[in-house]
Amino acid sequence: MIAALVAGLLAGYGIAMPVGAVAAYLVALTARTSLRTGAFAALGVATADGMYALIAVWGGAALAAVLRPVTLPLRRGSAVLLIALAVRGMVMAIRRRRRPSPDGAPARQTASGVARAYLGLWAMTMVNPLTVLYFMALVLSRPSAAAPARADQAMFVVAVFVASASWQLVVAGGGALLGRVLTGSRGQLITAMVSSALIGGLGVHLLIAAS
Fold this sequence. Notes:
82% helix; mainly alpha
């Protein structure tokens, strides 16, 4: 049980800590909305990681053969999604800049509720090719003769979720602090444009690599 806990925590932090498009989008989303919205978005990411961990421990090595043919389409679909999110982020940032709130404070995004943030980041993580490849490697690394107890499998999945959730909540907290520091409309515009450029750049890189 302890070994499963440690393995799950290591796997969860291993996939959560590298800074990529999901982290950049989470920071930007929290900065322009609220910590509450960012927290739900962070839990969406952790839910996707937990689901893939569940697939990894219960699917077996045979699942890797099923995942291999869809890896390239997932890469391309993820690249297109990232580019679309980057363009949307830039357009919305420019619109908010041109239409400030009536009281003179910078307009903050309110249309994206907590449910939408949760589902959006969940979907973004589920189609992230890096996440798919990471957990495919976990599947392949499991010895075929080994048959962990159900309790150990459940502990591994829970540990992955907890590790991912704790890190993503830290990332969301950083986004909330950034949002409070950059209170001016110009600061929020710069934040949105930089994060969108990063996300779009990652999308273009994935698209080129998948060609």
